[in-house]
Amino acid sequence: MSVLIAYFSATGTTAAAAKRIASLTGGRLFKIEPKVPYTAADLDWTDTNSRSTLEMKNPDHPVAIASLPDLEGVDLLLVGFPIWWYREPAIINSFMKELNANGIKAACFATSGGSGISRAQEGLEKRFSSLNWKPGLRISSAETDEQLRQWLDTVNA
Ligand SMILES: Cc1cc2nc3c(=O)[nH]c(=O)nc-3n(C[C@H](O)[C@H](O)[C@H](O)COP(=O)(O)O)c2cc1C
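# flavin mononucleotide complex -> structure
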């Protein structure tokens, strides 16, 4: 089973979760990066005109991606991101569109200040319906390795 863990992380929290998943699965990590990096000002959700606020007004807002991973031989794609405005950041939809990963098994995981993953998961399942989506997981720092393993078992089932 070849696992690709593709994640976007603006401030490092999702990157840490992705690394935990990589060590549990032996999967390959891929960092999703925008061509133009986000600055602290871009991430200010209290600013109605910040880049992130403007991007998140339209879930299909195109965000240029720096590079794409090699999907050759991948059996399971795990997509990780921070929750932005209760759902997946626009960069994730741009990434998935460009990746064009038809038919393979996939699941999402996210970190957040408290919001759940269900809206993000529904959005991804709707937009990228050719993938075989399994249940996603919001990962908090309290999640134990055992809980992560249980989730990975349901994804692999
Ligand atoms: C633009 C923006 C919007 C956010 N919106 C939410 C939200 O709707 N709900 C929530 O619980 N956290 C929200 N957060 C907090 C992040 O989801 C949380 O800090 C996350 O763990 C950051 O992950 P990262 O360090 O990998 O970027 C938001 C953060 C940013 C920058």
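# post-check
Residues 9-15, 43, 45, 52, 82-86, 111-115 surround flavin mononucleotide (CB under 6 Å).
The helical segments are 13-25, 51-56, 90-99, 118-127, 145-156.
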